[in-house]
Each structure stands twice: as structure tokens, then as C-alpha cells.
């Protein structure tokens, strides 16, 4: 039987192909993919109320599948293809055999590997946006939102910053692994949609939103943390010492951030919260992302200290005091854990990167550009979708949850996940006063989680 695509000849292993680099890149991409499926699918499905478990998990799973089809259909070429306009590539299909087997724009890899690697980053960005909208967005509206936002928002920032012909890339601006393209974008987009389009959850959900399965939540969080090895370790596009440095810095910063957040929870609330520790883990992962391969180990620890404290302060203190933030129902606090932590990481990279002249790559205009694009495009997309289907679930669906939306339920349990009275002591599940008070409270009644 003849081998397809001439793999029986040297064309299957051209001179430019580095098999070690290609193997690691495919492995790294799969690790990032597992952050979404099953990582965030499990995390979202377990950190919400029981009645939202199926819907939350399925929003993540749907986004992963929909992004892939759009990505190979036109998205990849818009983000990394030939120049169309200064901030966008030409839409085109990325399934042509000749294209997929030819060398990509960077590294000793085929385009097929790069398409796959960049897809998992695009997918997780959409899934992170879902975290801000859980518990009230119409699933049919979400089905439309995913391809539109990928096409008209994500591709713009990805092309501008990551593609060699992008206008910001030409200025020398770098984003090592998505601090801006992924985390700042998802945080701003989720906040924008939650602010004036989708609206808040039902009052009952905002008042009490306990996780339905904390152990599963930890399993999802663990997949997210370990998957970040590929998230940052794969971005040098080669098996190099830089990849090794990026991986180690990622885990050092994350562990530091988790411990700092945990200590702050104990100091101000008297309890070592599991949800809080996971939040600290997320902010550490996000903060180190722009810097992973360009800072020394001591800088990763400092970044972990700051990522475990500054987003904690914005979430647990400022969110309560600033009416604008308090008004927004960001279910998993994507704004704090991704927009704030991602911006912080980009700024700190400019300070700690070696050589220090790298700081010119992390100036305010890059942040403002990403914020502007995502606010405008997310708003336009939501307005257009609202002309076709409601963005928000009906009151009956909000009250019933999964059974009304999907005709399915996650568990046959009594009490909507609120069986144990001890859960009323959690300061992450109720809208109460924050620090310097004897009460415990969460940021706007949210479950803050990426």
C-alpha cells in the first residue's frame, strides 16, 4: 500500500524540518489544548452552582470545537497570513496540502504544526471570555458570538502583535506568550459583554453561588496549571534553553502567587480558601506569561508576589468600593484574573526582562490598542447578535438552569449544591463587606476564577 503525500520519499522529512522541535511543538500544543478540554470544561462545570454545571461546561466545549473549524477555514490566515491591511491578514483556507506541509514563518516546523499550535491559544481565549458570562448568556447567542469574535477581534490583535508583518510587531513590540493577545483581550472582552450587553445573573445566583464540586474544581485547576508548561514552553518554537527557562519560571511564579494569595486570605478572612488559592494560581500563570522566557528566576518570584497581591486587592477591595466595577457581574472575575494580571505581567516584563532595554517593548500604547479593539469589536458583535437572538436567557431559564436550556442535569443532588451549612461561611460565595470588617465577602457575589 502506497504511503500518502509522498511520505515514502524525502519530502516527508525535508532538510529544514527539525524533528525534535516539531515533536515538542505538537506536545506543547496538546498540553495547551488540554487546559481547555478537559481542564476548563471541568473547572467551569464544577465551580458554578449545580444548576449551571452542564451549561457552563458545554459553553467551553462548544467554543473549542467552533474555533477550530473557523480557524482552519479563515481565522489562521487572518491572524498569520499574507498582509491584507496593517492590522489584519487576508482571509483564506488553511487546509491546502502544499501550504500545510511547507515551512512556517518561524522555526523549523511545518505550517500544519503552527496552525494547530495557534489554534489552541485562540480557543482558550474564547473559553476565558465565557467565564465572565456564565449563568445568564443565551447559549444560541454564544454559538454566534464565538465565530464572530474570533474573526473580528482576536485575529486583529494576534496579527498586529504576533505576525511578523503586523504593525505592532514591526515596531519591535513582543508578547512572549499571550499576556496581551490572550489574557488582556479575554478580560476586556468578557468585562465589556457583561457590563452593558448580557447583564448580571439572577439576584439569587449573585447572592449565593457555591461550587457544586470543589474536588473536581481542583482537578480542572491542576490541568490548567500543568498545561501551562506547553503554554509558555512552546513559544520559543524550538527545543531550547529558553523553553526550559520559560517552563521553570512559569511554575515558580505560579507557586509564589498561590501562596501569597492564600496568606492574604488567611490574614484578612481567617480561612485558607481553596477557591482563593486557585485564583492566586491563575493570576500567577497569567502574570508570568509575557515574561516567561526573558526574565531570571528571582524576577519570577517577585512577579509571583505582585500577581498574588495586586489582583487580590483589586478583586477583594477595589471591586467593592468602585461603583463601576461593582456594577459588572463578571462571574469568574476574568477582568481581575486576566486583564489586570495580564497587564501587570506585561509591565513587569519591561522592568525585569534581560537585557533591560526590552522594556521598550512593553509600553502603554500596546495595552491601549488591545483594550480599544476588544471594547469596540465586542460591543458591536453583541449589538448585532441581539438583533437576531436574545443575548440573555429568559427568567424561567435563569431560574431553572441546565434542565431548561439543555434538557439535562449534571447531578441528581438535593439542594442545588447548598446542602451543607458550612458553605455559608465562604467569603467567595456571598455579596458581603470586605477587609477591615468582621464579615466575609466576595467580589460582587462572584466566584472569582479564571
Automatic annotation (TrEMBL):
Topological type in the membrane: Multi-pass membrane protein
Gene Ontology molecular function, alphabetical: ammonium channel activity
Keyword Mitochondrion: no
Keyword check for Ribosomal protein: no
Pfam families: Ammonium_transp (PF00909)
Main location: membrane
Domain Ammonium transporter AmtB-like: 23-411
Stretches for region Disordered: 431-450
Protein name: Ammonium transporter
Organism: Linum tenue
Amino acid at each position: 500500500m502506497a504511503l500518502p503525500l509522498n511520505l515514502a520519499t524525502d519530502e516527508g522529512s525535508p532538510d529544514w524540518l527539525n524533528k525534535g522541535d516539531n515533536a515538542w511543538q505538537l506536545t506543547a500544543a496538546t498540553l495547551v489544548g488540554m487546559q481547555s478540554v478537559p481542564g476548563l470544561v471541568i473547572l467551569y462545570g464544577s465551580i458554578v452552582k449545580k444548576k449551571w454545571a452542564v451549561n457552563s461546561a458545554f459553553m467551553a466545549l462548544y467554543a473549542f470545537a467552533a474555533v477550530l473549524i473557523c480557524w482552519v477555514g479563515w481565522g489562521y490566515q487572518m491572524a498569520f497570513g499574507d498582509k491584507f491591511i496593517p492590522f489584519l491578514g487576508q482571509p483564506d483556507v488553511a487546509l491546502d496540502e502544499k501550504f500545510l506541509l511547507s515551512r512556517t514563518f518561524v522555526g523549523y516546523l511545518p505550517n500544519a504544526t503552527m496552525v494547530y499550535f495557534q489554534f489552541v491559544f485562540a480557543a482558550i481565549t474564547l473559553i476565558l471570555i465565557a467565564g465572565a458570562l456564565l449563568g445568564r448568556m443565551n447559549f444560541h447567542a454564544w454559538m454566534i458570538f464565538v465565530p464572530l469574535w474570533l474573526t473580528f477581534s482576536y485575529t486583529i490583535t494576534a496579527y498586529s502583535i504576533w505576525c511578523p508583518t503586523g504593525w505592532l510587531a514591526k515596531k519591535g513590540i513582543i508578547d512572549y506568550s499571550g499576556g496581551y493577545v490572550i489574557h488582556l483581550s479575554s478580560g476586556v472582552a468578557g468585562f465589556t459583554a457583561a457590563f452593558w450587553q448580557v447583564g448580571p445573573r439572577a439576584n439569587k445566583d449573585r447572592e449565593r453561588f457555591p461550587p457544586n464540586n470543589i474536588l473536581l474544581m481542583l482537578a480542572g485547576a491542576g490541568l490548567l496549571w500543568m498545561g501551562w508548561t506547553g503554554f509558555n514552553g512552546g513559544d520559543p518554537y524550538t527545543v531550547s534553553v529558553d523553553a526550559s527557562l520559560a517552563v521553570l519560571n512559569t511554575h515558580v511564579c505560579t507557586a509564589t502567587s498561590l501562596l501569597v494569595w492564600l496568606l492574604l486570605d488567611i490574614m484578612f478572612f481567617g480561612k485558607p480558601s481553596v477557591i482563593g488559592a486557585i485564583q492566586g494560581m491563575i493570576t500567577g500563570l497569567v502574570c508570568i506569561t509575557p515574561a516567561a522566557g526573558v526574565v531570571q528566576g528571582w524576577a519570577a518570584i517577585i512577579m509571583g508576589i505582585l500577581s498574588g497581591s495586586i489582583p487580590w486587592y483589586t478583586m477583594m477591595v477595589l471591586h467593592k468600593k468602585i461603583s463601576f466595577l461593582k456594577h459588572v457581574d463578571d462571574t469568574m472575575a476574568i477582568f481581575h484574573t486576566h486583564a489586570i494580571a495580564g497587564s501587570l505581567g506585561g509591565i513587569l516584563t519591561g522592568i525585569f526582562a534581560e537585557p533591560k532595554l526590552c522594556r521598550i517593548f512593553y509600553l502603554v500604547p500596546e495595552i491601549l490598542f488591545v483594550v480599544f479593539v476588544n471594547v469596540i469589536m465586542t460591543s458591536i458583535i453583541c449589538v448585532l447578535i441581539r438583533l437576531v437572538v436574545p443575548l440573555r436567557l429568559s427568567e424561567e431559564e435563569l431560574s431553572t438552569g441546565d434542565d431548561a436550556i439543555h434538557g439535562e442535569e449534571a447531578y441528581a443532588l438535593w439542594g442545588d449544591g447548598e446542602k451543607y451549612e458550612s458553605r455559608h461561611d465562604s467569603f467567595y460565595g456571598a455579596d458581603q463587606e470586605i477587609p477591615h470588617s468582621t464579615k466575609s465577602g466576595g467580589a460582587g457575589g462572584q466566584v472569582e476564577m479564571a
